[in-house]
Design brief:
By secondary structure, this protein is mainly α. The protein has 3 helices and no strands. It has one domain. Helix content is 85%, strand content 0%. The longest helix is centred in the middle third of the chain and has 54 residues, at 33-86.
Length: 95
């Protein structure tokens, strides 16, 4: 009988028992009212960060649209200048 007890790896048994005990205590701690308060405050902070981020994204999108419209206008002006430069100086049209 003692030979069987000598063959058991007591370090592993202790580690397993400690893990079970720690897990049970952890579940109890995570389901308490204090933990709920922490979860609620954390979720509220994440929602505030999301709102702030969405405001920044909206501003960036509006600026990108303004830049795009300005670039289109610049290209239209350049095309108009190139067409004007292609006309002959005597005023006759090119066929």
């Amino acid at each position: 009988m003692f030979e069987l007890l000598e063959k058991i790896n007591w370090k592993r048994v202790g580690t397993f028992a400690g893990g079970v005990l720690f897990g049970t205590a952890g579940i109890r701690a995570l389901s308490g009212s204090d933990a709920k308060k922490v979860y609620t405050h954390t979720t509220a902070a994440v929602l505030r960060a999301k709102d702030c981020l969405m405001d920044r994204i909206t501003i960036i999108q509006e600026n990108a649209e303004d830049i795009y419209e300005g670039a289109l206008q610049i290209n239209e002006e350049r095309i108009g200048e190139e067409e004007y430069e292609d006309l002959p100086e005597d005023g006759t049209e090119v066929e």
